[in-house]
Amino acid sequence: MRLLKALTLLLAASGVIALVVASRAMPRPLTAIAAVQPAMNFGYVRIEGVVVAYPTLSEQDKFLSFRVWDASGELRVTAYRAAVEPLLAERRIPLPGDRVSVEGTLRIRDDEPSLILNAAAGLRIETPPAAAIHLTELNTMALGERVQTAGQVRRIRNAGDRLRIISVRDGDATADVVFSLDLSALIAAPQLSVGQWIRVTGAVGEYRGAKQVLSSHISIVQEGAMPATDHFRSIAELDDRLLGRWVGVEGVVSDLRPFKQGMRADVTDASGASIVVVMFDSVWQNLPFSTTLSVGDHVRVEGELAEYRGQIELLPELPADVRQANEPSSGTPGDRPGAIQALRHVHR
Fold first, then answer.
1. Is residue 147 located within the same domain as residue 170?
2. What is the number of structural domains in the chain?
3. d(CA 251, CA 236)
């Protein structure tokens, strides 16, 4: 009789264990974030969506938190030591643009739901391929969508001690590329400087209504691999309709005239037309060739097209916007260093 009772208890326990194992092996029904209700507090659910911002990660404290968006709403997912340690060991941390499936326990406090990731196995990550786009197309992309684009570095600054903001430009298009300083062990970035061209892979984010790229990879574009630009134009084409636009010209320096705040240069291209390039001291004094630039030198200049006293001018913004081209000098008499130094002296 005792043996029969023991067998009965063993079978019952085995059945319970089998049910638990089976329930864990079977995928949980998918729960829409908007469907989460206070009555579901401490419920075990599965959500799927896109990571829309950089996670908060502390390797020292073994803490991870990230936000997931599923088109119906947004939910914060939090994981602690036991769940985080395997994720850190595998470097399996969700980044912006990743699609995730998360199983865990709901916690709802003050009508604010969150999800606790109880085990590393409850997180599955898929990184979609990035769409190659021009910077001008960024505003048409959906939030969270992964993209790859390129631009010239215009400004580098830190937002607190967690984020680095890299402003880039490609023609008329400008945008901010965001780099997480907290995740430097996961996201490597080269040492960058203003004027370099970079290629960025990441997810589309938004700050104060402006689209930006939350980067997961940044690389420097080498000189010979820079993307083709379509904002360079013949000087003869430049007129009032292009005022305020970012344009580029290429030609020969036909005159140099100092003024109180910098230097004006006339540039003439193959069309025979000329334009005044106004280089304020912030640009002119930082040109590596400002003391040797001569009439007859071949230059490439980018800047905003403006008008001053009825004359169209080109205003470069940074020293990187003015470059000496590889073509040889035109050999005009004014390209002699002594002649140009005398010209500058007279105007001063």
1. yes
2. 3
3. 12
pLDDT tens across 331-342, in order? 333 333 333 333
Say if residue 150 is in the same domain as residue 99: no
The pTM for the full model equals 0.80
341 and 254 both lie in a single domain: yes
pLDDT digits (tens, 9 = 90+) for 196-240: 999 999 999 999 999 999 999 999 998 766 666 778 999 999 999
One-character DSSP codes across 96-136: TT-EEEEEEEEEEETTEEEEEE-SGGGEEEE-PPPEE--GG
CA distance 235 to 251: 9
Q: What is the pLDDT of residues 14-28, one digit of tens each?
A: 553 443 344 445 567
Mean pLDDT value of segment 24-40: 82
Q: Exposure of 106 by Cβ count < 10 A (0-12 exposed, 13-18 middle, 19+ buried)?
A: buried
Looking at the fold, whether 195 and 252 belong to one and the same domain comes out as no
Residue 105's CB is within 10 A of a number of other CB atoms, namely 15
- Supply the CATH number for residue 138's domain: 2.40.50.140
- Which of these, 150, 153, 184, 178, lies nearest to 164 by C-alpha position? 178
Can you say whether residue 21 is alpha, beta or left, with left for phi > 0 and alpha for psi between -120 and 50 degrees? alpha
Give the domain extent around 304.
Answer: 235-347
* Claim to verify: residue 84 and residue 143 sit in the same structural domain: no
Does position 10 have pLDDT exceeding 80, yes or no?
A: no
Question: Which residue among 174, 196, 225 closes a domain?
Answer: 225
Evaluate whether residue 18 is within a structural domain: no
| 232 CB-side CA count, 13 A | 11
Give the C-alpha separation, 248 to 315, whole Å: 10
86, 21, 95: which is closest to 55 by C-alpha?
A: 95
258: CB partners within 8 A, 6+ apart: 264, 344, 347, 348
Q: State how far the Cα of 43 lies from the Cα of 174, in Å rounded to an integer.
A: 45
Distance CA 336, CA 135 (A): 42
